[in-house]
Amino acid sequence: MDCPLCGANNYRLRYPATASFVDEANPNKGHCMNLDLSRHGDIVQCRQCSMVYNNPQPEPAELLNIYKKVKDPLYLEEVQARERTFKRSLDQVHRFTKPPGKILDVGCFTGTFMKVAAAEGWEVEGVELSSWAAGIARKSGIGTIYEHPLEQLSLPKNRFDVITLWDVIEHLVQPVDMLKAVGSLLKPGGILVFCTHMVDSMAARLLGKRYPFFMELHLVHFSRSTAMRMLNEQGYELLDIKSHHRIVRIGYFLEELSWRVKNAKVRSFIKKISTGNGLADRFIRIGLLGMVNVLSRKK
Length: 299
Description:
299 residues, alpha/beta, Rossmann fold, 10 helices, 13 strands, 31% helix
């Protein structure tokens, strides 16, 4: 793979593979939370621009097919927690622009962020590749849902005031092409927001190749400097980089954790405490893992 940021074919191995293969039949492949955390092939760093990325990567057609087939019913059980997470992120957006206006949510999944934004007075539209998730979002009636990659849509130029990519940009073979497509759709002065993990975060540096967000389907790994370079080169002004905290239900968190534990007794204990004493339906805020919201403005 050439560098997805500068195009150079000059890299060094940064993190060796932790898995020689990923099970193609894994039902969690492409889920919002899955069991393949820290399972990845070789991760390299460009010697020219320092961009970090998976090498090799799946073919674009293979990726598209994976995302079209994603079904994640457990996601629906966590809507309330995800609404709280999105409300915090939308508050960050509102520091720079407020409704009325149009928001396009790229990778909208079942439309949870769209629902939160619509409640705040925004007119919303969404892009979602998963047929299952797009169908659920469409049935909600909150806005138009497009089921094709953004680059393939013939949307009017300068249409949107805000475009968001929540947990999307790290899944792209060519993130630069996405920013070009977004730039044509944003109004002058419009806001682009994306959430992703940072490879120069304390968590990533401490955990190395075991960093949980190094995964087969996380193809690119930005640092603050490479994110700024990409934004500047594509005509965006960086406004802020804010820590992203994920709000989850304790029962959901412990259930996911239990699947990561190999010891059967420990796993059973975790499942037991997750369902007792009313603990499961309480919320916790997870941070310190290098997740950020990057907010920028089209020049």
